[in-house]
Write a structure and sequence with these properties.
Largest sheet: 7 strands, mixed
Number of strands: 15
Number of domains: 2
Radius of gyration: 21 Å
Low-confidence stretches: none
Order of helices and strands: HEEEHHHEHEHHEHEHEEEHHEEHEEEH
CATH architecture of the largest domain: 3-Layer(aba) Sandwich
Mean pLDDT: 96
Structural class: alpha/beta
Distance between the termini: 21 Å
Bound molecules: pyridoxal-5'-phosphate
């Protein structure tokens, strides 16, 4: 069935698809997609795949979604960009909608997750300035990922993303994730101004904290006047069965960041805040040329409206749970499978070893997944409108690959 690129791989020769003019930032898999529809992708050779990755949590409504395509085409023929020097109706509508689903007061639009987190970190600095704290400390978590800009890679609790980039932004103090005592121990440090964390750690391999942890973080932040910043770049927009994962614990952070699924592939990021955190920026403090332009704003508004009108937040919970059970049923007892976990459409299968070229082995069966955690964790971030039939198909293909290892 699989021709050309993958055939070369089958013969145990990884094809060197090196583009000399591209900087060497990615180790790319030996396949090139040219078309997508729903949760299906087709490569240059006409092979069809089921997409359980969604461009790493980005195509939350799948590929070529008719409502998204229609908005893109309408807006492209109407107005792409003007500048934030002017009032932008589409941005105003998106702001209102985004604040209502996130339960926040105000929002700033950027173009990526890293930029959304940069804005959040700048808010923490302004909070420090207001409190007259000259050497502010932002508490961050070991294993976290917040982006690749200098501030966000410094916030990330992962030595690999920091390697070679010293001096880092030195605000951040990393503690153990899911350890409320570790955070409580910092109460004595008067320089702490904020805590930044993912409600479920994505890049680390879908690490879900204990029930009550986020609420306990919320309580400590309130008690000590620390801003609670929740990075929902991967977990947000309905993926876990709530609009945002913190809503599972019925809490409200001070700041929420979003990106990835928000534009279904059109770049957009958001940093929303409530209460006093929402009023920290004044004109001139922060800006973005592209952020919240008519094009990306209208697409993001259609993404949110479609998730809402199609009932996809509940669907993500239901079908995600179904997918997890199907996977448990098929591979749960295989030796080598250590854990199957996740919430909604954010799932992981942890293995006890790192088989070589694992992601490519899945491609050969026609399944697109991500492998993280040093090659041991298979991560699934499918579109939230995945069907039950597609879920069965994914679980079956996972079985077919794992059984051969
Ligand atoms: C992907 C990701 C980011 C970075 O987003 P970019 O759009 O790549 O800058 C930040 N935080 C989390 C939790 C992410 O998963």
């Amino acid at each position: 069935m699989f021709k050309n690129l993958l055939d070369k791989f089958r013969k145990d020769k990884l094809p060197p698809i090196l583009v000399p003019q591209l900087m060497d930032t990615y180790t790319r898999l030996p396949v090139s997609f040219v078309r997508g529809e729903g949760s299906r992708l087709w490569d240059v050779d006409g092979n069809c795949y089921i997409d359980a990755l969604g461009g790493i949590a980005v195509t939350i409504l799948g590929h070529s979604h008719p409502a998204i395509s229609e908005t893109i085409s309408l807006q492209a023929n109407k107005l792409l960009h003007v500048s934030n020097l002017f009032h932008i109706q589409e941005q105003a509508q998106l702001a209102s909608k985004f604040c209502s689903i996130a339960q926040m007061d105000k929002v700033f639009f950027a173009n990526s997750g890293a930029e959304a987190n940069e804005a959040a970190i700048k808010l923490a600095r302004l909070h420090a300035t207001k409190r007259n704290i000259a050497k502010p400390v932002v508490v961050a978590m070991q294993g976290s990922f917040h982006g690749r800009s200098l501030a966000t890679l410094s916030a990330s609790g992962n030595k690999r993303v920091q390697q070679g980039f010293v001096p880092l932004v030195d605000d951040f103090e990393h503690i153990k994730f899911n350890d409320i005592d570790a955070l409580g121990a910092l109460a004595a440090n008067n320089n702490v101004v904020a805590v930044i964390l993912e409600p479920i750690q994505g890049e680390a391999g879908i690490v879900i904290p204990d029930e009550g942890y986020l609420r306990a973080v919320r309580d400590l932040c309130a008690e000590h006047d620390w801003l609670m910043i929740v990075d929902e770049v991967q977990s947000g927009l309905g993926r876990t069965g709530k609009w945002f994962a913190y809503q599972h614990e019925d809490i409200l952070p001070d700041i929420v960041t979003s990106a990835k699924g928000l534009g279904n592939g059109i770049p957009i990021g958001a940093c929303a805040a409530r209460g006093k955190a929402a009023d920290l920026f004044s004109p001139g403090d922060h800006a973005s040329t592209f952020g919240g332009n008519p094009f990306s704003s209208s697409v993001a508004l259609t993404v949110i409206n479609t998730i809402e009108s199609d009932g996809l937040v509940l669907a993500a919970e239901d079908v995600g749970e179904y997918l997890k059970r199907q996977i448990q049923h098929r591979v749960g007892t295989l030796s080598g499978v250590v854990d199957i976990r996740g919430k909604g459409m954010m799932l992981a299968i942890e293995l006890d070893s790192s088989p070589a070229n694992l992601a490519t082995k899945f491609l050969l069966k026609g399944l697109v997944v991500n492998v993280t955690g040093g090659g041991r964790i298979i991560r699934l971030l499918p579109a939230i409108n995945l069907t039950r039939d597609e879920a069965v198909e994914i679980a079956t293909l996972i079985h077919d690959v794992l059984i051969e290892l």
